[in-house]
Amino acid sequence: MTRQLLKAILFFLGLHLFINNSFAQCPTGNVSGDVTITSSCSISTTLEIDGNLYLNGDLTLSGGSILTVTGDIIVNYVGSTTTYTISGGTINADSLATNNNSIIALSGTTVNITKGYSGGYHGGLTMINSSFNIGGSYTENFQAGGGPVTLDNSSITTSGSFYASQNTVYTLTNNSSIIVGGDYNTGNSVTFNVTDSEFDVSGVVAIHQYSNFNFTNSSFHSGDSLTTYNGVAIDLDNSDLSVSSGNLTNGYQASIVADNGSSISVSNGDLIMSNESSLDVTDSDVIVEGNLDNNWLGDVNINSGSTMFITDDVDNNGSIDVNGGTFSYGGSYTGTSASSSSDDTNCLDGCCGDCTAFGSTLERTNSRIYAAWETNSSWVDGSAPATTGISQDISIFGYIYTGGAVSTASSGEKTMTIFDTLVVYGNLTFNSNTDVLEIKPGGVLVVFGDLSLKNQITIASGGILAVSGNFSKAGSSGQGSYSGDGVVYAGSFDSGDDTWVDSGGGNDQSKTITQLSDDGYSELETFITGGGTTPLPITLYSFTATKSNSSVHLHWVTSSEKNNDYFTISKSRDGVEFIEIARISGNGDSNDLIAYDYTDLNAGYTTLYYQLSQTDYDGTTEIVDVKRVGKTNGIIQPSIFPNPVQNNLVTVDNITSDMEWAIIDLFGARVQSGNFLNSNTIQLHQDVPCGTYLMKVSGQDFTSIIRLVKTK
After folding, report:
1. Topology (CATH level 3) of domain 538-629
2. Quick one: pLDDT band at residue 10, thresholds 50, 70, 90?
3. Structure confidence at residue 379 as a pLDDT band (50, 70, 90)
4. How many other C-beta atoms are found inside a 10 Å radius of the C-beta of residue 67?
């Protein structure tokens, strides 16, 4: 009886397996039905499983094998924490789900998931030299029970949202990245340790209470708002935190620390310091293109070597302490006065710390922080009247231009500090031998006239003084001194004054206006020789590309045109090679806003790049802008060559033409910047000194930081 019962059981079990077309061992060819792997399995060929894959053993794909699963990959529940290793090859599947206590270890593997990933309770994920591409969302419920999430030279990319469960520890090292196409949200007490890696979120970032995020030589980017909650700590060491659109909210008793050449930037949003929150900045920069709202007992500390620029208003109901750094703002100031450890303690006048107040007849603009003239710069409004008899210190932030000559009073010590850009349409005269002219790194002083001085002048490396007329040092030979590695460009020098500049700088620091282009400042030379008018045939006010199903609508607006014959629309799949698809007639000469439209009806559903170029009547063509539609194709990891840089030339690979670049020194100052519209080769300015820098390469939802060394 027992033997007959056993036979019946085996019969029905075999019938069940036959009906369901299941495969309970390591497949060697294509399988129609589900497959269950219960022990180590090695696959050395490309095959397809037309069903689900139940993984309860290690899986090795050798020789570049590709395993395609039309259904889901499911890791079953196990009683104790168990690690399953997937190594080599490529796996394509509909979704991946791990049950409780299961840890997936990827080694040299690419996993492509059409839908989403779900990690089970007390599970984990480790990755070495691997990539995990998810068409939907990433969610896990590890809660630190099984193991941490570690990425070593690996990447996770999602098209949807990303959720990190409470108590889970994430560790990214060795050029790893997590790129989130949607929103990012955490449970409580999550830890993120990121070293030499990138964390980029296209949507909203919400970090919940008592979580710790630590970045070293890395970048953290939010495409929308970034909000931290109670007790969250963000530490930046030589790293960048950027919020592209939306507010950066530092939660109740939360903290942000930026140190060692780090940067915090908020574009098109406010910095909100919640009650009892803190921001501590040392040898780093904070730039907020919006307001600062410092609430009750909010504590802002701007320490040595740091700058904090608020382009609009400051409302301070906590404390702002400037301890050796610089704090400035472009709008109004309300609330508790800021304090400064330097001589300039009157922080209600717009700037305090390592800077001084503006003269009453000069005004600050809210734009172009670090606006050294480079190939991608655009001048903005910020006029000031002709000014004579200046009797107090002046600092220049943003872009300022005067309507006439500027001169100082003949007595008293005054300092003019150029942090950004000052254009004087007229002569500039320093009348006191105790006056000081200081141009900071990235600062630009342009004089359309003569410059006369008998005082101290200091131009830091990366600073520029350009005089269209004559440079003259008046007074006795002992009056005044020149120091610094910056360069003086002038139409002419009084006899011996070029030697005076050279002897102070220690190099060939005195040059003619026509040498600007030789040093990489061709647009500045054109600006000066053209009398201060913008040389571009058009001024682009806006350019957008909007996808709707399988079509893309392009819309652009110009605010001025000169000899504009036509626009060309070109399309590319890789952002490098473009094919012309349309020409749109221009409007010749115009100073009005003019809108243009074009719809590409054959866009399909892939990632595309659209290039807008302009051609004037003499046939001269210039690329104006590039926009991307859709997500980037895979992980972007720019590389530079040679590094160390030689002969001031560097080539950046693995980029697309819609991206921009910036070179930043280890004090957070922007030395040079540009884009890849025309080339992936960068000509460094000759006056950029030898040393170590950071190169930031960024796109609309992408930022990468590369360490760059210049040796000669």
Report:
1. Immunoglobulin-like (2.60.40)
2. very low
3. very low
4. 23
Element spanning 37, H or E: strand 35-37
Residue 517: is it exposed, middle or buried by C-beta count within 10 angstroms (0-12/13-18/19+)?
middle
Q: Which residues contact 386 (CB under 8 A, 6 or more apart)?
A: 402, 403, 404, 405, 406, 426
User: According to the model, what pLDDT value does residue 161 have?
Assistant: 95
The residue extents of the domains of the chain are: 1-190+200-211, 383-529, 538-629, 639-710
* E strand or H helix that includes residue 139: strand 138-140
The pLDDT-based confidence of 60 (bands split at 50, 70, 90) is very high
- In the chain, count H helices and then E strands: 3, 75
Percent of the chain with pLDDT strictly greater than 90:
34
Using an 8 Å Cβ cutoff, are 414 and 392 in contact?
yes
Q: Could you give the angle at the alpha carbon of 342 between the alpha carbons of 337 and 344, nearest 5°? A: 60
What Å distances lie between residue 353 and 228, 295, 350, 356, 395, CA to CA? 29, 22, 11, 7, 12
Which architecture characterizes domain 639-710 according to CATH?
A: Sandwich (2.60)
d(C-alpha 430, C-alpha 452), whole Å: 6
Domain 538-629 and domain 639-710, same fold? Reply is yes
| CA max distance for the chain | 123
Lowest-pLDDT range of 8-17, 195-204, 572-581, 634-643: 8-17
- Of 88 and 5, more confident: 88
